Each structure stands twice: as C-alpha cells, then as structure tokens.
Task: inverse folding
C-alpha cells in the first residue's frame, strides 16, 4: 500500500531545525528549502533512479582502475618507485603508523568502495518496487559512508605531495591518478542525481501492520500540518 | 501554515533520522522504531551535548601534539631532518609555491582550530538557551560539517610522500608521531560535528525540554 496517498504534499520536519512543513509538488530539477533555516529538504532530480545507477556502475569500474593502477611514479638518480592508493597506506603501516594507515585506507578505499557498492545495490533493487526491507538498511549504511569517502581531498593531497617531490625527483602521474580525478566528479554526481525520498517510497515498510493500517491507523502516521 | 511555526517535537511528532518519515509515537518517553525503515526514533539526538563536548575536548587535546610533533622525518645520506605541519607549510612557501602553502595552512592549521572554536561556541549557546541569530548559527554548523573533511589533506600529503620517497640508502621519508594525532583531530572533530544535533539550536524558547543535554 502506498504510504503517501498524496505524494504531492508530503509533511516533513526539517532535520536541521525541526520545523514542520509540507513539501509542495516540485517541478523536475527543482528543490525545496526550509523557510526558517534554509536546509535543502527535497530535490526532484529528473531521473532519480536510472541516472545515478548508470553513474554508480561507471564509478565502480573507475574505482577498480583507480585502485589497481599506479597513481604516480618517480625517478631519481637512476632509481624508480611507484605507488598505488593502498601502497601508500601499506607504506604508512610498515613504517610504524598502523592507525593512520587504517584511517587512510578507510577514507580512500573502504568508504568510497562501500558507498559505490551499497548505492549500486540499492538502486538496482528499487527499480522494481516494492523493494524488500533490507534495501533501506543498505541505503542507511551507504549514507553513513558518504562523509568518510574523501576522493577530492585525496586528489588535492596527491597534487601537493607531487609538487613537494618534484623538487627532488622526476614525477610522472599514472593512470590511477586520472581515475581518481574521474571519481572526484562521479561521486558528487551520484549524490546530486539521487533522491533518497524516491527510494524510501519504493521500499517495503519495516512494520507490515503499520504499513497496511497506515491510512486509517491513529498510532503512528505522517501528519499533514498546515 | 499557521501563523506560529511549530516544530515536530512541539507537535509530539518525531522525524526519522534515516528516512525522514514523520510519526506520532504512542509513548513520548520511548519513541520506539520507525515504522518504515526500522531505525530507532529519537526526538533529539540522545546525549548530543555530552558526546559533542567529549569529542571536542579529546580533539583539542590531540591538536597540541598534532602541531608540535613532527609529521615527517626525511633521511638523506644518513642525516635525518624532522618536519612539523608548519614546517611543511614553510617548505612549500620557500620552495616558491605559496598558493599551495596557503591551502595547506588553511586546511591543516586554521580549519581544525576554527572547527573546534565553532563547536565550542555552538555548545555554549545551546546550553545557555540563547535565542539570537539561530539561522546564522545553523549556517555555521553546516560549514563545520562541510569543511571538516578537508583537514585530512595533510594526512594524504604525508602518506603519498612517504610511499614514494623510499630510495634507500639515498633518501627516505618516514612518518612521525604527529601524523597520528593530526588524523585523530580530523576524525574526532568530524564525529563531534556528527553527534551535534542542530535542532537544539532552535529549541531555545520553544518550550521543548532539553532532557538530552
């Protein structure tokens, strides 16, 4: 059963200031802001499922390239060295900074990898609604990973390291570096083109009874506030 | 809309943190779980202020060794030289790339300090129940949330410098103990920003009890 009989007017509370309000029907590409604190409450991307799914699949391929190929190579006095992202974390680990190595590996590999994987799972599963309840759980994990995935910070960090090293040695950017550059654009593109509300409307309710009695039930329900 | 703005908490409603569904819990003391996504419901983040204070204080303590201890030790032909974060900034400046020096200075020194000051300010105004300038304060909070990740910059710079410069016995770079404290500052301030509930800023003067402070 559709939990929102009239999705055109959805009652929400602003997550930043808790103001009750209704989200008006949005034309594609528009967004709704909280009148009190300015938080973006809702946006309506033109294609909230298929476009982010296509971007996610692309990101998954680029992610593999970014991790498998060398980021950069240096040559100095006849010697060569190159590194991958995980190679950087590994070097940190063997030189005695295990915790820092784990943080780097988490922010540069694990969090973005899991984010891409979870989003791909969610977006594939909700193409045929109603999606099973675990899809909501996976989306929650994906949204947890989002702030910890730091490709844009890492890219800037790599560039600063390159310029520092360029004083000492010849530096060549590798294929992995271009892949990281592509991910810096792809990951925010997934976030912008995706609409969590659309996913939640396609996911089965945790409490089946609530979902079926939602329209008539009084205990818990979304309340329209005017 | 009625003339007076009403918050969900005032109306006895609770919005799910995860899926944003509004529901009316039967027992306000124990809101239970969201009927749609199954996440635990809470009117405000439980113990938000305690957690945020604890994380901010821990981060402030780590901020000192993060800046005092060396982050990189460069060994050239047997002689070692250690650099702190500021040392790295000075190196970039003297080697002619002042825009990069400025970026690293802002991301590594000013942003973490600014975040700590901003969070302490927000914690104090919420605890005092101050009512002025709520929109600005919410904007400040969002800025803290947004820029937090950029402080990780120096950790990545150090990681890739260490990874590449392993040309033993000519020259090698090893991480110093400062890196760990620095990474800890970034992670702790990010967690502090996450545990702070911005709705508390707006609760002053609405009569919503701050039972979670």
Result:
């Amino acid at each position: 059963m559709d939990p929102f009989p009239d999705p055109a007017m959805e009652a929400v509370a602003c997550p930043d200031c808790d103001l009750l309000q209704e989200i008006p029907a949005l034309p594609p590409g528009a967004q709704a802001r909280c009148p009190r604190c300015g938080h973006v409450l809702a946006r309506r991307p033109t294609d909230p499922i298929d476009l982010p799914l296509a971007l996610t699949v692309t990101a998954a391929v680029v992610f593999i390239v970014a991790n498998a190929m060398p980021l950069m190579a240096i040559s100095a006095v006849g010697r060569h060295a190159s590194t991958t992202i995980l190679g950087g974390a590994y070097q940190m680990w063997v030189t005695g900074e295990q915790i820092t190595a784990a943080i780097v590996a988490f922010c540069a590999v694990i969090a973005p990898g899991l984010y891409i994987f979870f989003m791909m799972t969610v977006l594939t599963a909700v193409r045929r609604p109603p999606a099973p309840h675990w899809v909501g759980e996976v989306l929650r994990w994906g949204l947890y990973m989002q702030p910890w995935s730091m490709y844009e910070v890492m890219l800037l960090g790599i560039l600063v390291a390159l310029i520092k090293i360029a004083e000492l040695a010849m530096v060549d950017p590798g294929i992995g570096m271009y892949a990281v550059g592509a991910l810096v654009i792809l990951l925010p593109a997934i976030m912008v083109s995706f609409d969590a509300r659309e996913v939640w409307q396609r996911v089965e309710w945790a409490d089946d009874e609530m979902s079926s009695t939602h329209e008539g039930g009084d205990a818990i329900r979304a309340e329209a506030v005017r | 809309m009625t003339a007076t703005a009403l918050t969900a908490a005032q109306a006895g409603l609770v919005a799910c943190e995860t899926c944003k569904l509004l529901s009316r819990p039967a027992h306000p003391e124990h809101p239970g779980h969201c009927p749609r996504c199954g996440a635990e419901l809470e009117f405000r983040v439980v113990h938000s202020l305690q957690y945020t204070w604890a994380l901010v204080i821990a981060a402030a303590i780590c901020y000192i060794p993060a800046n005092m201890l060396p982050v990189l030790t460069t060994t050239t032909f047997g002689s070692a030289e250690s650099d702190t974060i500021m040392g790295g900034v000075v190196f970039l400046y003297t080697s002619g790339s002042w825009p990069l020096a400025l970026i690293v200075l802002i991301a590594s020194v000013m942003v973490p300090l600014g975040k700590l000051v901003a969070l302490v300010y927000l914690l104090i105004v919420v605890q005092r129940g101050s009512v002025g300038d709520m929109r600005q304060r919410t904007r400040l909070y969002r800025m803290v949330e947004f820029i937090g990740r950029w402080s990780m910059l120096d950790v990545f710079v150090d990681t890739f410098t260490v990874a590449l410069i392993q040309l033993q016995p000519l020259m090698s770079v090893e991480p110093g103990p400062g890196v760990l404290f620095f990474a800890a500052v970034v992670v702790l301030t990010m967690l502090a920003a996450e545990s702070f509930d911005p709705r508390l800023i707006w609760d002053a003067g609405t009569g919503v009890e701050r039972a979670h402070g």
Chain A has two domains: 1-44, 47-210. The CA atoms of residues 133 and 204 of chain A lie 5 Å apart. The helical segments of chain A are 50-68, 85-94, 98-125, 134-145, 151-166, 175-193, 196-202, 208-213.
